[in-house]
Amino acid sequence: MIEIKNIEKYYANKGVKSYILRHVTTSIKQGEFVSIMGPSGAGKSTLLNILGLLEEPTYGEYHFMGEDVTAMKERQRIELYRNHIGFVFQAYHLIDEMTVAENIEAPLLYKKIPGSERKSRIADVLDRFNMVAKKDLFPNQLSGGQQQLVGIARALVAQPSIILADEPTGNLQSAQAEQIMDLFKKLNQEEGITIVQVTHSEKNAQYGNRILTIEDGVIKEDKATRLE
Ligand SMILES: Nc1ncnc2c1ncn2[C@@H]1O[C@H](COP(=O)(O)OP(=O)(O)OP(=O)(O)O)[C@@H](O)[C@H]1O
Questions:
Q1: How far apart are the first and last CA of the chain?
Q2: Ligand 1, closest atom to CA 48?
Q3: Ligand 1 pocket: which of 10, 46, 55 to mutate (most atoms within 8 A of CB)
Q4: If you ran DSSP here, which 8-state letter would residue 216 be given?
Q5: 44 lines ligand 1 (CB under 6 A)
Q6: Deepest in the core among 122, 132, 151, 187, taking most CB within 10 A?
């Protein structure tokens, strides 16, 4: 599903290049649940953003679902993102002026899904996440865990092939974090949705099947998680 080869990313400042990622080569198959770990500043979010088509690498090849992303025009990349990628952010990134239902609806409007289908898809995810009673509330009327559930519902409603999550439980208390991780595991195991998350938590990483460790922009280790 994902193949990256020799990805490099640097920022040039006054002629001096600071490398964020160097020679990153890996592949992720459909149905995997991968955790990206490593010290602060190692380049984890940068890699996730590149995988999620939110940032471009300076060099290297990226094939997403068989398509050469680096050769694409911006419009094509946006289209690919809308059709296949659900991104979940640590700080939720919900729109404060929109209700829960409206936030969840937003990606469907971009995809030009007709009104009746939008309604039924929103009803489905609200039901599934036990949030029907909260649908007309605004994000600031919800707990952090509930806001992240809305963030995940918004990512899922567009029926993505992959969910990319950047420290999805970073702002949550442990009980809420466990609920989110259980949900990811279920989505992965029961619905076959590919998941890639950045996490600082070894415990969260164990929910997945593989851990990629990045240090100083380089993949240091690529191993399977403990079998349960
Ligand atoms: N626009 C930019 N210009 C210059 N440097 C940048 C820019 N964006 C990110 N960086 C640098 O890239 C490095 C890697 O950042 P990144 O957010 O990918 O790390 P991370 O491993 O996710 O860290 P954390 O765990 O703290 O979130 C950091 O040192 C950061 O300062």
A1: 25
A2: 18
A3: 46
A4: T
A5: yes
A6: 151
**Residue nearest (by alpha carbon) to ligand 1 atom 12:** 20
Name the 3-class secondary structure at 122.
Answer: helix
> Tokens representing 132?
């029907």
ipTM given for this complex: 0.91
Spans of all domains in the chain: 2-222
User: Could you list the pLDDT tens digit for every one of the 228 residues in the chain?
Assistant: 999 999 999 998 888 999 999 999 999 999 999 999 999 999 999 999 999 999 999 999 999 999 999 989 999 999 999 999 999 988 889 999 999 999 999 999 988 899 999 999 999 999 988 899 999 999 999 988 899 889 999 998 998 999 999 998 888 788 888 988 998 999 999 999 999 999 999 999 999 999 999 999 999 999 999 765
d(CA 9, CA 45): 12
Give the global pTM: 0.90
110 Cβ closer than 6 Å to some ligand 1 atom:
no
CATH topology of domain 2-222: Rossmann fold (3.40.50)
Beta carbon of 40 within 6 Å of any ligand 1 atom: yes
